[in-house]
């Protein structure tokens, strides 16, 4: 081994060892381990992938194009844009009620592309404090100023916008743009953006109209709205949001993402987004998998699965919050549920459910569930604040009532044991 590589390995080992001691070392499970588990962790919310229905639809799509070639051959800025990809983008723009669409290899790539290239010098990005890491990466590479507002807090948003207007005369005169960055369903708390109120606040505070609302629909695409067209389509706000990101790797069960915007923004991304310019265009297999997913979304099968997912979510919440032990567990701060105050009032629920534990206890609860063959994921710092460690449960359309009930019972068993341990220390 070269001396330089040996030194590098020692440095990296020390960093990883420190993370291990803090209980934050990420060790992804093996495929063999996951195969033994009931899935309460993946983002396959409609169970399109795990059920096999997406595979069957994908194979039928391949049969329609027997002379397909796998590779695209080049990047989008050269000769990598094939007719099949163009056709998908036109259809997805129509499906989501947008002027145009641009397909990306991943939602992460798409967010970095948007935020590093579209806001211009002199513009300001006002963002929810819990937006995804990919948006932060994009903003860091971009040229606009940034300001955050408290999560889902419209009063904080209003205050933030007023500060921007007070501090920036060019914004106040309408010479530059305020971008407002949101998510639909937030991936760590499982709560939803109050988009109607946010639109109203932005319109009131920026009466000159020099704003662009941007939303990441990673966790809502396919799950809500007409034919699963998303959160913004559900509320009929397509004209209010200048840029929307719809990912395909969650409810659609495949991969990739599509940015919905006008033709000028699409052309700007093609000219300036490095993840487009310097990446091979999506392959036929990737695009056909996405088309198969969208075909299912618009079908009776897709509607049934959306309905069943919502039923399963409400059953989980009901089982958990009505359990006789839940009040004591909350009172002793063994567990908390960020979405408990609002879930009964919502027209629909996000598939992500966060159970916040005391720091370091999330791994113990996750292991207790995994021993019973139920897979859940953990989230700790830096994914969430140091005091907000949690297990992250994802409910699926194909989770059974028995399995949902069993998960809640196991959570109760573990939590009550923690109460006994806590009381013995008093």
From TrEMBL:
Alphabetical keyword list: Pyridoxal phosphate, Transferase
GO MF assignments: pyridoxal phosphate binding; transferase activity
InterPro entries: Aminotransferase_I/II_large, AON_synthase_class-II, PyrdxlP-dep_Trfase, PyrdxlP-dep_Trfase_major, PyrdxlP-dep_Trfase_small
Residue ranges annotated for the Aminotransferase class I/classII large domain, each copy included: 39-404
Required cofactor names: pyridoxal 5'-phosphate
BP-aspect Gene Ontology terms: biotin biosynthetic process
Coiled-coil regions listed: none
Protein family per UniProt: Belongs to the class-II pyridoxal-phosphate-dependent aminotransferase family. BioF subfamily.
The protein's name in its UniProt record: Pyridoxal phosphate-dependent transferase
Organism: Aspergillus avenaceus
